[in-house]
Input
Amino acid sequence: MPLTLYNTLTRQKETFEPLHPPQVGLYLCGPTVYNDAHLGNARGPIVFDVLTRYLRHLGYQVRYVRNITDVGHLESDADTGEDKLEKAAKAKKLEPMQVAQHYTNSYRQAMASLGCLPPDIEPQASGHITEQIALTAEILERGLAYEANGSVYFDVPKYNAEGGQYGRLSGRVVEELLAGTRTELAGQEEKRSPADFALWKKASPQHIMRWPSPWGEGFPGWHLECSAMSRKYLGAEFDIHGGGLDLMFPHHECEIAQNEGSHTPSPGARFWLHNNMLTVNGAKMSKSLGNFITLPQMFSGQTSALSQSYSPMTLRFFFLQAHYRSPIDLSDDALQAARKGYRKLLNGLRLLDKLTGDLGEVSGEEVKAEETPAKPGPPSPAQQLLNLAAKPFAFLDDDLNTPRAVAAVFDLLKRFNTLATNPAALAEVGPAALREAAAAYRTLVQDVLGLRDEPRANTEDLLGLTLGFYQEAKEAKAYDKVDQIRAALKSQGIVIKDTKTGVEWAYSEE
RNA sequence: GGUAACGUGACCGAGUGGCUAGGUAGAGGUCUGCAAAACCUCCUACGGCGGUUCGAAUCCGCCCGUUACCUCCA
Output
C-alpha cells in the first residue's frame, strides 16, 4: 500500500510520489524567534518529524528544511507595526540578533528533547536578504508587483487577472477578502488593493534591522523568506510544504503567489500539509486565560496551568495519539494518561530485549507477513504475530494516521505480553517470527514514532546490583529488607516484578 | 459580522451507512508473602431536534456549543 497524504491544495488524499525519487524535499515553516516556543508550537515539528522519519523508513532520502524567522515578522500589517524581534530586543535592551540567537538556541534544545531530528538545513531569513531581493525583482519584472514609496507590494488583482489563483489554497475568493478587509488599518493607502501584500518594506528611521535594496533601505516582507529559501534549497518545484493550519492564509497563499510570480513559476510544493491546532482545557491558549504554557514551563512544571511537570516524550506521545489534522485538547488528565501509555510502550522494548535475548543465535525458518496462505483455515501463530506487526505501517501509509498506528502498536505489545506469560504459545510462534515482529516494534516505537527513553537517575548496573540484594533478602525471607528495597526503588519510579523466571524491574506507571 | 472545521463512553482520542479502535481511569479474576507489572473478563458512547434509508453516531437540514481563519499566531 503506497503512502497517501491529504493535500490541502486539492482537498483530498493523494498517493505520494516524489518528483525525483529517491529524493524528497520537505519544507516546514519554522519559528519566529522572539520568545520561548509554546506547546502549540511543538505540534507541527513533531508531526513533520514523524513524517520525515517515516519517509526515511520507506527508503527515501529526505532533505528537511525548516527556517528560522529572525526578521520581517511584524506585529501587524500596518506600517506602524513593529518587527517582533525588534520589539522584544528593545524591551530587553538587546541587539535584535541577540534575541534571535537566544531563542533559536532555546528552540533547538526544546526540539531535541522532543525527539525531533534536526533539519538538514535551517536557513535564517536574515541570512537570505540577497535571495529575497532577487525574488522581489523577478516579480517586479513580471509586472506582478509595484513600488510605492520605497516599498514593494504584490499585485493580487493583476496576478489573478493573469490566471493566478490567489485564494485557491485556503478556499477563498479575493472579492470576499476585500469585503472583509479592515480599511481603517494604517499603511493601506500605499496599496492599490487591500488584498495586496508587502514583498519589501521601507524602513522607518527608527527601524533597526535594515538592508540596502534597489528600492532604498528596508527589510523583506514576512511571506517572502519561505519562497526564497525553499526555492534556493529545494528547487522551484519540490515535494512537501508543511505548516500549521493558521499559516494557510495568508502566509502560504502568499508564498504560492510569489512562487508563481517569479521567473520559475510553480506553486512551489506539490503537497501542502497543514496540522491542526491545540487547545488547553478546551480553550485557545492565551495569556489572558492563564493557560498559556511554553515548552520550558511545561518541562519544568513552572506553570499554574498544570498540576505538575510533564516530560518532552510525554508531550510527543500525547500529540501522536491524535491525528495531525484534528484539533487536540490538552489537560492534566490527558497528559497523565499519555505518560502512562508512553511508558508502557517503552517497557515493551525492555520485554522484547529479554524475549529475543533468550532466543540465542538459533535461527528459525523464514515467515513472511501478508503472504497468502496456500491452504485455507486460520493463520498460524507466527503468521498472526507478523500480521499484527504489519498493521501499524499500513495505518501510517494512510495519511500518517498515528493514532491508529499507535493503537496497532499497543495491540502488538499486548500479543508480546501474552506470549511472555505463556511459554508454550511462545514456542509455537517460533524464533524467526518473534525476531521479525520484535524488530518491527522497535522500528515503530524508536525510529518512526521517535519515542526514546528519557534519562533517569538509575543506571542498569545499579539496578542489577539492587536486584541482587533484593533476591538475596528474598531467599533469606527477610521481608522487612525486601519491602525496604522495594519502597526505595519505588520512590525512584522503579517497580520490582517477581516473575516465575526471576526478578525484573520496570518503570512505575504511576 | 463573513468563511471553514469540529462536538464520540469518567478523561484523551480513532473510525465507519449495518461488523472490538487504542490509551488512561473504574470493576471482577489469574498470578503473588503483600503488592506491582502482565494476562483474562466486564463497563461501551457517538451535542439537541428533524429528515433521507431496510438500517445513521456515520448522509442532509436547522439549532446549540467549541475552535480556526478573515488581523500577529503552529
Confidence is low (pLDDT under 50) at residues 180-186, 369-374 of chain A. The first strand of chain A starts at residue 4 and ends at 7.
